[in-house]
Design brief:
331 residues, alpha/beta, two-stranded antiparallel ribbon, 10 helices, 7 strands
């Protein structure tokens, strides 16, 4: 056995006899500079929070006030103070009557799930969204590293061409996308405004037909938001005739959908965000390519992902009750 190894073992044995532990003895000397600075940084961060109107704070501002490198302040916040940066989030403003309606809806939905645990996974969540051909670029996520400013830029038309896509999904399948458009002899397909007549045609000729082909027309509960085109009398009459009053969640129906609540709509808090993060990766250069990309990404969504999205709705719903129907942001 090497001499250094024997010496190390003897020292460890002697230290164990004296202290009952194998840990190194505490060494005298200057305290760690990061640990010494941590209390000052914590106090400065609290001061910045108290001064900010939104209750936010800034590691860079704390570094400027204390005369420290921003990287040092960031390391101390993460490694010593165990703090993490969270983004400020915007949510829909709720009116005074909204919270009571949201709370009542949550209690009703949980009572339905108690009677039938599969009920929530058979809701057909329907919604529509606009997809612009020229997607916005987040400048903060697209830096250009260079020795000097390249003055690079991208041109964007004032009114970018767009398509309006509508999808419906349950916890096991998705139908769509369906596009609101009409064919023009000169300009080809043109995106149309969604009105009651066009929406009713879409329901009758595509949505309901897709459910019949899947053998799901008698199983699903149809959900839609409260847009005027969705709640017109002819549309309401058709939905009642097709699904029955007990299998419709919509404004002006027996089981109304609450207003200003995208935090509870899986299409809003998951589907459109996911699709837009995927569709523009291929860089579509025409509306035809854009629609093909939307179709491709929708068809590639696995049923397990749909099931998880609907389970997310249940989680969001459960968070309403402690807040009396108020907003609760999930990270």
């Amino acid at each position: 056995m090497p001499f250094n190894t024997c010496t190390g073992l003897l020292k460890s044995f002697k230290r164990f006899e004296e202290t009952g532990k194998l840990d190194d003895r505490a060494r005298a000397g200057r305290a760690c500079l990061k640990e010494a600075r941590a209390p000052c940084i914590a106090v400065e961060m609290e001061a910045i929070v108290s001064e900010a109107a939104s209750g936010t704070n800034s590691a860079r501002e704390a570094a400027r006030r204390l005369g420290l490198p921003p990287s040092s302040v960031h390391n101390i916040l993460r490694r010593i103070l165990q703090l993490y940066p969270y983004k400020f989030q915007l949510c829909h403003e709720l009116l005074p009557a909204d919270t009571a309606q949201r709370e009542a809806f949550a209690k009703w939905a949980f009572s339905k799930m108690e009677q039938d645990p599969t009920w929530v996974f058979n809701i057909l969540w329907t919604d529509e969204a606009h997809f612009s051909l020229h997607a916005d670029v987040n400048n903060h996520n697209c830096p250009i590293w260079a020795t000097s400013n390249p003055r690079d830029h991208a041109q964007k038309p004032l009114h970018s061409p767009k398509v309006t896509a509508r999808c419906g999904f349950t916890g096991s399948f998705i139908i769509g996308p369906f596009f609101f458009e009409t064919q023009c002899p000169v300009n080809g397909w043109i995106t149309e405004t969604v009105n009651a007549k066009r929406y009713l045609t879409l329901l009758r000729e595509t949505v309901v037909l897709s459910l019949i082909q899947r053998g799901q027309i008698s199983n699903v509960t149809f959900m839609q938001n409260g847009a005027t085109s969705h709640t017109a009398n002819p549309v309401k009459a058709f939905l009642i005739q097709t699904f029955g009053e007990d299998r419709i969640v919509s404004r002006h129906c027996r089981y109304p959908w609450h207003l200003r609540s995208p935090d509870l709509t899986p299409a809003d808090f998951w589907l459109w965000v996911y699709l837009k993060s995927r569709v523009y990766l291929s860089g579509p250069s025409s509306l035809s390519e854009l629609k093909d990309a939307i179709r491709r990404e929708v068809s590639s969504i696995h049923p397990d992902v749909l099931h998880s999205a609907v389970a997310g709705f249940v989680t969001h719903l459960a968070c309403l009750l402690p807040y009396g129907g108020g907003q609760h942001i999930l990270v």
